[in-house]
Amino acid sequence: MAKDSTFDVVSKVDKQEVANALNQAQKEIAQRYDFKGTGAEIDFSGEKLLIKANSEERAKAVEDVFGSKLVKRGISLKSFDSGEPYASGKEFRIEGTIKEGIDQTTAKKITKQIRDEGPKSVKATIQGDELRVTSKSRDDLQEVIAMLKGFEDADLQFVNMR
Crossing angle of helices 56-72/15-31, nearest 10°? Predict the structure, then answer.
């Protein structure tokens, strides 16, 4: 009997690269002329990212600067989840988070897509914040990887191919 081949689907973010992107964004915001006197700043405290500015447009511009720094560092924008700008006193704020791991609803969407569109021999199981995909055929697993590369809801990586 042939041994099953497996791989794991994960969604991980390099925290050091996020910190580097944040530092670069803070430096650019401090130096750019169009941000002078607008109270524009970006802070990260553990899980939450807080963007502040004196207008909604400036807050969105700070968010764009941070997003461009993430992309330059090789982090997908799918990993950055930001809210809508809201007024807080005299300033506008945007709260965001860096998503890591695959939540239950996204995991269920992925397993449903594998079941519906993938080869019949492939099985996907949810294991905490990651998925394990198994099959007897490595070719079927590679077909599933190719199918999941276009997944829109999360930044997915494929690890532990055995």
Answer: 130
Summarize pLDDT for 45-64 with one digit per residue, the tens: 877 899 999 988 899 999 99
Cβ atoms of 86 and 93 within 8 Å: the answer is yes
- The secondary structure of 36-98 as a DSSP string is TTTT-EEEEETTEEEEEESSHHHHHHHHHHHHHHHHHTT--GGGEEE---EEETTEEEEEEEE
Task: Note the pLDDT tens digit of each residue in 73-100.
Answer: 988 888 888 888 888 888 899 999 988 8
Nearest CA to 49 among 15, 89, 94, 112?
Answer: 94
Report helix, strand or coil for 19.
helix
User: What spatial distance separates the first Cα and last Cα of the chain, rounded to whole Å?
Assistant: 16
